[in-house]
Amino acid sequence: MKFGTFDDTRKEYVINTPKTPYPWINYLGNEQFFGLISNTAGGYTFYRDARLRRLTRYRYNNIPLDTGGRYYYLYDDGDFWTPGWMPVKRDLDFYECRHGLGYTSITGERNGISVNQLAFVPMGHNAEVHRLVVKNTGSAKKSVKLFSFAEFCLWNAQDDMTNFQRNLSTGEVEVKDSVIYHKTEYRERRNHYAFYSVNKEIAGFDTDREAFVGMYNGLESPQAVVAGEPTNSVASGWSPIGSHALNITLEPGEEQSFIFVLGYIENPEEDKWESLNVINKKPAEAMIAQFATDAQVDAALAALAAHWDNLLSKYQIQSGDEKLDRMVNIWNPYQCMVTFNMSRSASYFESGIGRGMGFRDSNQDLLGFVHQIPERAKERILDIAATQFEDGSAYHQYQPLTKKGNNEVGTGFNDDPLWLILGTAAYIKETGDTSILDEQVPFDSDPNNTATLFEHLKRSFEHVTNNLGPHGLPLIGRADWNDCLNLNCFSTEPGESFQTTANIEGRVAESVFIAGLFVFVGPDYAEICRMRGLNDVAVDAEAKIDNMKEITLTHGFDGDWFLRAYDHYGDKIGSKENEEGKIFIEPQGICVMAGIGVENGQAEKALSSVQEHLDTKYGIVLQQPPYSKYYLNLGEISTYPPGYKENAGIFCHNNPWIMIAETVLGHGDRAFEIYAKIAPAYLEDISEIHRTEPYVYSQMIAGKDAVRHGEAKNSWLTGTAAWNYVAITQSILGIQADFNGLKIDPCIPTEWDSFEITRVFRGDTYVIQIKNPNHVSKGVVSLTLDGTAVEGNIIAPVGDGAVHHVVVELG
C-alpha cells in the first residue's frame, strides 16, 4: 500500500495523506543550522549540536507521537485548522506534502482557503525560512487570521527537560516590531539568542506558552487560536514561545505570502548589548532583511537547488530501472549527506541528547559522501582522529560542538581504530591528496600532544596487533561493530550500560569480525606506507595481514561459515556447537570482502550458509537461531525479543557487506537480489508493513522470528546509507575510486544489457557506457578512453577538467 509517490523530475517524495504509518520526515540544512520536519510539520531546529544548541523544544515518545513543531494555525470565522493536519487534526479538503532536497512543502486546504507552508534553511545562513502562501480559492471575500507557533528550548535539550526548578524561572524574551527574540540566559554566560520574525505588520503576539495555549489545553486547541485573538503576553520564566498573529483579507482568487525567519545569532562578548538588558539586534535585523521579499526567498531556494544539483552530479546512472536510478541518483546520496551532517545524533529515533558523533560511524559515513564534498570529508577525518589516544584506541563518540571525546561512553571498542584507516584511504583514493597524512593531529584533543595523521593510522593498525588474544585473533574489548555483543560485561544490574560496564577483567574474548576488518583495510594501510616510501613498514604490515588471514582460516572458520567470536571463557560464538546464535552475518560479509577463504572455497561455503540460514524475503537477519533468553556472557544482544535489533533482526547496515562479498565471488544476480530486498524505493508498495519512509533506509527491519516481520525502525541516521551506496555504486555497478585512478569492475545481474554512468573524479567527468552483450556478471574484456584502448580496468586521471567517454565491454 502506498501513501505517496516519487516525483523524480523534481527530486521529491510526494505524500498524499497526513496519516502515514509513522511520521515521515525530512532534514533542513547543510552546514551549521539544521531542522527536522515531518509530513505534518512536526520536528525541531538546532544550531550545530542537537543537545547543546537546541532552538525549539520537542517531546519524544509523546502522545500523539509527533507533537511539537513549527505550526501555523488558520482561524476562519470560528473554524481553525493547520495545513499539515496536525496538531488540530481538522479534516482537510486537500492535503499534500512534498519532501525535497533540503526543503519541505506542505499544502492544506479547507473551506475555500489554501495554505502552503514551505520550509528550508538557506545556504550560508543560520536560520530556517518558512514561507506561508495563503490563497482564497472560493468565490467570496475572506477575512482570516494566521497564528504562528514555535516553542523555544532553553538551549541544552537535556537540561531543558529535567532541571525545572531552575528553568521555569529563567525564560526571557524581547519583542520589537514583528520580531520575537528569545534571550534566555543571555544575561549571563551565553552570547547567543534566537529570533522569530515575519515580514508583515502583526496584529499581536504571544511569547508565554500558558497564555497562548492555556493551562489545560494542548496544541490541538490553543486558547488564543480558539478565541481568534492573541494576548500580547510577554514571557517571564515558565515556557517562552514565539507566536505572531496576522490579519489577512483576501478577494476571490487572491493570495498573499508571509515570510517567517527562525534564526540563531552569536554576538562577540564586547558587543552583546544595545543598552542595559537590551540585546544587540543588528545581526538579526541584517539576516531578516535578506529574506524580506518573495524574490529573495526564490533566489535562496534556487541556490539551494543548485547546491544539491552539484552534489548529485558527481555520480549519475541511466539504467532503465527507475527505482534503481532514483536510489543512486537522488535518495541514497541525499541520505548519505544527511547522515554525514547528523551522524547518529538527531532523528525521530535519536533524541539529539544521548549520542554525539560516532568514531566508527563517522568513518563509515565518509564512504558515502567523500565524492560529493571531499573538503568536508577531510575536516571530518581530522576531527575524528583528534579523539584518538596515544595507544591507538579512541573515544567511541564525540560532541560536534566541542569536538571532544565523550567521557560518558569512553573508549575500548576495539574495531574503532581500523575505521580511521578506511575513511582516510577513501579520501585519498577520491582526491589523490596525500598531504592530509602530514597534518598535525592531537591525541585526546590535546593541542600540546600531536602527531601526523599518518602516525595516527600507524597506531590504529598497531592497536590490533598489540591486542591479540589466545588464538592470535584481535581482542574484542567492550565490543566491536556490534555494540550489543558484550563479551566482557557480565551485567546483572538493571540499567547498567552494557557498553561501559566491565565487571570481569580479562584479555581472552576475541573477535573474528575485527580480524576480517583488519585483513580488509590492511592493504590500504600498506599502500599508504609505500606512498610515503616506507617499504619496510609496508612489508611488515603485509606479513601481519597474511598471518591474520591464516589465523582466521584456522581458528575462525566453523566448517561451513566463519565464527563470530570467542567469549571470555574461550568458548565459540556463532558456531554449530552453540544452541542458539549458531551463525552471524557480520563475519561472513567482512571476511569474504577481505578475500579470506576465496581461494580454498570457504568463502563460497560461508555465503551459501548465509542464504540457507539467514535469508528472508525482507532481507538477511543478523543471526540464527535467535536468543530466547538472557545470556550473561553475551550481554545486550540477548536482551532483545527474537527478531528485533541485534537479536536476529534484519540489520540493514551489514546486508550490503553480503552484497559486496557476493561480488567478490562474481555473483551479480545474488548481489542485486539482496540490494533490492532492502532498498527503500523497492519497498514503497508495502509501506503499510515497512512503516518508515519509502525514500530512505532504516537501520533495522524486524526479522523472521519477530511478531511483525518486515516492519522497520530507526530510519535516516544509519551506516546503512553509506554502505548500501558503496555496495551499489562501487561493487555492483563497479565504479570505484582507487589510489591510481578510477577502477571499472562491475558485477551485475546477467540479464542486464547495458547501463551508463556519469562520474566526476578528480576534476574530470567520465561518461562510462557499460555493455554486457554476453550476459555475464563480471569481467572486463575491453575498455576504451576517448576511443583509445586502455590495458586493464583502471583509468588514470586525465587531469584536464574535460568530459571523457569510456566504453566498457563485459565478457
Automatic annotation (TrEMBL):
<dbReference type="InterPro" id="IPR008928">
    <property type="entry name" value="6-hairpin_glycosidase_sf"/>
</dbReference>
<dbReference type="GO" id="GO:0016757">
    <property type="term" value="F:glycosyltransferase activity"/>
</dbReference>
<dbReference type="InterPro" id="IPR037825">
    <property type="entry name" value="GH94N_CBP"/>
</dbReference>
<keyword id="KW-0328">Glycosyltransferase</keyword>
<dbReference type="GO" id="GO:0030246">
    <property type="term" value="F:carbohydrate binding"/>
</dbReference>
<dbReference type="InterPro" id="IPR010383">
    <property type="entry name" value="Glyco_hydrolase_94_b-supersand"/>
</dbReference>
<dbReference type="InterPro" id="IPR052047">
    <property type="entry name" value="GH94_Enzymes"/>
</dbReference>
<dbReference type="GO" id="GO:0005975">
    <property type="term" value="P:carbohydrate metabolic process"/>
</dbReference>
<dbReference type="Pfam" id="PF17167">
    <property type="entry name" value="Glyco_hydro_94"/>
</dbReference>
<dbReference type="Pfam" id="PF06165">
    <property type="entry name" value="GH94_b-supersand"/>
</dbReference>
<feature type="domain" description="Glycosyl hydrolase 94 catalytic">
    <location>
        <begin position="307"/>
        <end position="734"/>
    </location>
</feature>
<dbReference type="InterPro" id="IPR033432">
    <property type="entry name" value="GH94_catalytic"/>
</dbReference>
<dbReference type="InterPro" id="IPR011013">
    <property type="entry name" value="Gal_mutarotase_sf_dom"/>
</dbReference>
<feature type="domain" description="Glycosyl hydrolase 94 supersandwich">
    <location>
        <begin position="11"/>
        <end position="290"/>
    </location>
</feature>
<dbReference type="InterPro" id="IPR012341">
    <property type="entry name" value="6hp_glycosidase-like_sf"/>
</dbReference>
<keyword id="KW-0808">Transferase</keyword>
<protein>
    <submittedName>
        <fullName>Glycosyl transferase</fullName>
    </submittedName>
</protein>
<dbReference type="InterPro" id="IPR037018">
    <property type="entry name" value="GH65_N"/>
</dbReference>
